[in-house]
Design brief:
Helix 1 packs across helix 5, helix 8 runs parallel beside helix 10 and helix 9 packs antiparallel against helix 10. The termini are far apart. It is built from ten helices and eleven strands. It is α/β, with parallel strands linked by helices. About 40% of the residues are buried.
Length: about 300
């Protein structure tokens, strides 16, 4: 039938899967191994290696010779590195683009339900799978929502929550290339964190919907690249800088969606909480980065590592 033929045509679309690596080669290898088992075969993996390690990336090249590896001498950040992969996909006429975190492993059947969702609903601009913690016991991400009064994004961790979501995590997102051409690339001013919320809001402003496809499942290890266990706790001070700076940048960029008084109140409480916590824990480098992030967010300054 015509309907069956259309479905088969959709399932033969070529997909570019973009993975960004930064120093976590073991996690990346496990992710690549899981992708080798995926039943959908019309795909190409594009690995963008930030601050590339010559020896380790050459091992990946030899072990995964079908992976397109793009090396960067410096850490460009999550946003810019993904944009390199997206530009490659557009240039090579891929019909779908997926961003996939290197600290994930996928179910071999995870792609088909995502593709089916586009076939079933033309108004979809982007979709994500159900993302489970790696122990498979808890939901890590089932779509994101926004508190519009306070300007605060939060993650849904419940299955079968059918209301329309506000944003999709950059951990795993599938889009049609034609949607990317309309909405534009990821905003590199974010470097990392909140860039997925911004991209999602821009997609929705074009009139598209976002979706979570719970029959598609992947597993998430956790944000190991952000951790620095040797210095003032687990998270790097730079992560706290990005958290403060980028949240402010986001609410300013999309100020029409949020309540100004609510945003001010929320940001005041957030900075106050961080200040008290870091002073009590004697984590003064992190405290300094919080206020640097506050200053740079308010004054629209570029990311400073």
């Amino acid at each position: 039938t015509l309907f069956y033929c259309l479905i088969q045509m959709n399932l033969n679309k070529k997909i570019a899967i973009i993975i960004v690596n930064w120093k976590q080669y073991e996690l990346t290898i496990n992710c690549l191994l899981s992708l080798q088992k995926v039943e959908y075969k019309n795909l190409e993996v594009i690995l963008v290696d930030n601050e590339s390690n010559f020896e380790k990336i050459n091992k990946i090249k030899s072990d995964f010779n079908k992976v397109e590896v793009i090396e960067s001498k410096e850490n460009l950040g999550f946003a810019a590195a993904n944009n390199i992969g997206i530009k490659y996909a557009i240039k090579n006429k891929f019909e779908y683009v997926m961003l996939l975190n290197n600290d994930t492993e996928v179910n071999k059947k995870f792609l088909k339900p995502l593709l089916d969702s586009f076939q079933n609903d033309n108004s979809l601009g982007a979709v994500q799978p159900l993302i489970m913690n790696y122990n498979k016991a808890k939901v890590w991400n089932a779509g994101g929502y926004l508190n519009n009064f306070f300007g605060s994004p939060y993650t849904n961790k419940l299955k079968n929550k059918k209301r329309q979501i506000d944003w999709i995590t950059g951990c795993c997102v599938l889009l049609k290339t034609k949607v990317i051409k309309k909405v534009g690339l990821i905003d590199e001013d974010f470097f990392a964190y909140y860039e997925d919320v911004d991209w999602s809001l821009r997609i929705k402003k074009l009139g598209y919907k976002l979706g979570v496809v719970e029959s598609s499942v992947i597993f998430h290890h956790g944000t190991k690249s952000s951790k620095n266990s040797n210095f003032e706790g687990n998270l790097s001070p730079f992560v706290h800088y990005l958290n403060i700076r980028n949240h402010i940048y986001l609410v300013k960029k999309h100020s029409d969606k949020f309540n100004f008084i609510g945003v001010l109140f929320y940001q005041f409480l957030k900075i106050l909480f961080y200040s008290i916590y870091f002073m009590l824990r004697l984590r003064f480098s992190k405290l300094k980065m919080v206020y640097r992030g506050l200053n740079d967010g308010i004054n629209n300054k570029q990311i400073k590592k």
